[in-house]
């Protein structure tokens, strides 16, 4: 018996050293992964800000290349950038080149008519950006159809990505809450088995979510279904900044697991606690490094505040789970009198950090008050703020119970308040999972060059011809007018004489003649200054022969 007692301290020390060695091994794996990670430019949800030729434009001769300029740097998705000729054949020649924000596509645009440009690129924060526009050479024609593979994300995959994000958040709070409470607040007389199981479940959910993120990123990037995953696609994901952040997270979780096992069995020493805190803090940074914050206008600030935001959430909600599930049910009144005031201070600090970090995040990602209201990201953020206010109100009620020393004597009342907090915050986590997959308001509110603001286009018909009318930018001030005449079978209609006027009867503006310059047999252009907003009446008279002519009209809203 004596010998056994003498051996126990050595065995315990051996176990502690083994745990620390395991943690160090996990850290070494993480550091190797960081060293091997390729350097990638910082970027975010990119939007198309300009193109050459511009969207819906008509150029006299075909360009040798199509140039797309995005708001921030992108990388291409193989086979997802295409130019379709008027006869529906592929007009792009060779692989597009990407240099930062500019994508250059070599094309053969010798045929007259309308071309379709479709694209899918990936911004450095892992989100795909897709779209399409047309331009015409010589004269417009019926737009071609792209029969290639889909450039948009599969909706099932998009929703699965959001679910994986949500599962990751839940796993994080289920791991952090039990680990924190067991390390600092757990009564010695109570069994640690229940919290340990909860924490292991959280760790399992974190690993599952990280693996699901890596798997889903392949079809999310390429636009395929859930199981459209290839070795090459998975290799591309693992070699990206997004993939490396997830691999580092898995390495840190593996390192932490060695130290969590003894913590779940008994109180641990200060050294082990510090190592666990370092591992946990490092793991928190893998979330912002794989998302919007790393690509914001102030990446260093965004990454730090997002990690603080996430950590505060995990501490607060994880602690609430421990209160609701274990402490308020098992601890006696004397223990609760000691635990609840400490927890209340922790929760107050976590909520203050959440509020501060969330405010900084909002200022960076939203940028303008208008974007807060007019974008999906801003609207989701407003919903999150509203729910957060409700949670704070319930938390304030719980804190008042603790201050009045009523919580320990009435644990059922405190438990109901905590459950309400958890219910509301479960919805907040769902909103957050959508928020991280939504284009930031600062980017979404940017004007996209592919679709000019206020551009007006319509086709007018008469017994003699059809007339395509384009007015750019369809706003007060100087405007460019383009007219294209076609026969009934959509062939260019030669025109002998063009006439056009513009009037605004509601403002007493009589018809203003628009000088027109014929560019080709069926195409004329002109410039006009529209001095006021309103419903302008445009009138066009087109003479197709010595005796045949017809007049058509259009109403154009001018802002």
Give the termini distance in whole angstroms.
Answer: 93 Å
Uncertain spans: 1-9, 20-44, 446-453
What structural category characterises the helix and strand content? Answer: alpha+beta
Number of beta-strand segments: 18
Strand proportion: 15-25%
Largest sheet: 5 strands, mixed
Apparent shape? elongated
Gyration radius, to the nearest Å?
32 Å
Q: Can you characterise this structure?
A:
Helix content is 49%, strand content 21%. The radius of gyration is 32 Å and the shape is elongated. Helix 1 runs antiparallel to helix 5, helix 2 (155-184) packs across helix 8 and helix 11 runs antiparallel to helix 12. The protein is built from 13 helices and 18 strands. The strands form four sheets. Strands 2, 4, 5, 8 and 9 form a five-stranded mixed β-sheet that branches. The chain has a five-stranded antiparallel β-sheet with strand order 10-11-12-16-15, with no helix packed on it. It has a four-stranded antiparallel β-sheet with strand order 1-3-7-6, with no helix packed on it. The N and C termini lie far apart (93 Å). The protein is α+β, with helices and mostly antiparallel strands. It has helices at 2-36, 155-184, 193-222, 231-238, 241-265, 270-284, 286-289, 299-330, 333-366, 369-374, 376-403, 411-435, 441-444, and strands at residues 48-52, 58-59, 65-70, 74-76, 82-84, 97-99, 102-106, 113-123, 128-137, 456-461, 466-472, 477-486, 497-504, 509-513, 516-518, 523-530, 534-543, 549-558.
């Amino acid at each position: 018996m004596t010998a056994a007692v003498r051996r126990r301290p050595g065995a315990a020390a051996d176990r502690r050293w083994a745990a620390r060695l395991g943690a160090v091994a996990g850290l070494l794996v993480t550091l190797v992964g960081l060293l091997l990670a390729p350097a990638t430019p910082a970027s975010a949800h990119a939007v198309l800000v300009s193109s050459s030729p511009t969207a819906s434009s008509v150029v006299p001769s075909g360009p040798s290349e199509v140039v797309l300029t995005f708001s921030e740097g992108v990388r291409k998705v193989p086979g997802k950038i295409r130019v379709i000729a008027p006869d529906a054949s592929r007009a792009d020649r060779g692989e597009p080149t990407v240099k930062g924000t500019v994508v250059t596509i070599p094309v053969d645009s010798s045929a007259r008519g309308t071309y379709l440009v479709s694209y899918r690129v990936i911004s450095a924060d892992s989100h795909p950006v897709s779209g399409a526009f047309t331009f015409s050479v010589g004269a417009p024609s019926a737009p071609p159809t792209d029969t290639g593979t889909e450039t948009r994300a599969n909706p099932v995959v998009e929703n699965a990505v959001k679910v994986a994000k949500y599962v990751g958040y839940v796993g994080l709070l289920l791991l952090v809450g039990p680990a924190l409470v067991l390390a600092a607040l757990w009564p010695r007389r109570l069994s640690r088995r229940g919290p340990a199981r909860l924490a292991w479940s959280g760790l399992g959910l974190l690993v599952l979510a990280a693996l699901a993120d890596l798997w889903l990123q392949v079809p999310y990037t390429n636009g395929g279904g859930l199981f459209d995953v290839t070795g090459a696609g998975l290799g591309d994901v693992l070699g990206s900044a997004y993939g490396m952040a997830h691999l580092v997270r898995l390495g840190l979780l593996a390192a932490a697991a060695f130290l969590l096992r003894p913590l779940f069995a008994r109180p641990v020493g200060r050294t082990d606690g510090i190592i666990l805190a370092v591992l946990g803090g490092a793991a928190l940074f893998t979330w912002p490094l794989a998302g919007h914050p790393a690509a914001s206008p102030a990446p260093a600030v965004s990454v730090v505040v997002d990690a603080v935001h996430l950590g505060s959430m995990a501490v607060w909600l994880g602690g609430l789970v421990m209160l609701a599930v274990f402490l308020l049910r098992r601890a006696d009144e004397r223990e609760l009198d000691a635990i609840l005031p400490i927890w209340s201070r922790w929760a107050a600090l976590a909520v203050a950090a959440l509020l501060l970090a969330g405010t900084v995040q909002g200022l960076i990602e939203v940028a303008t008050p208008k974007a807060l209201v007019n974008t999906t990201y801003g609207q989701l953020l407003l919903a999150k703020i509203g729910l957060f206010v409700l949670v704070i109100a319930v938390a304030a009620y719980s804190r008042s119970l603790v201050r009045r020393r009523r919580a320990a004597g009435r644990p059922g009342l405190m438990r109901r308040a905590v459950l309400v907090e958890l219910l509301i915050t479960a919805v907040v986590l769902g909103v957050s999972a959508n928020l991280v997959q939504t284009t930031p308001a600062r980017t979404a509110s940017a004007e996209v060059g592919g679709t000019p603001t206020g551009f007006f286009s319509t086709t007018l018909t008469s017994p003699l011809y059809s007339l395509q009318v384009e007015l750019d930018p369809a706003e007060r001030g100087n405007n460019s007018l383009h007219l294209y005449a076609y026969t009934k079978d959509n062939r260019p209609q030669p025109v002998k004489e063009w006439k056009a006027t513009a009037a605004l009867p509601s403002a007493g503006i009589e018809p203003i003649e628009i000088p027109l310059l014929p560019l080709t047999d069926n195409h004329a252009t002109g410039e006009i200054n529209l001095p006021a907003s309103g419903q302008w009446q445009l009138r066009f008279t087109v003479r197709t022969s010595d005796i045949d002519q017809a007049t058509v009209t259009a109403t154009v809203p001018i802002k």
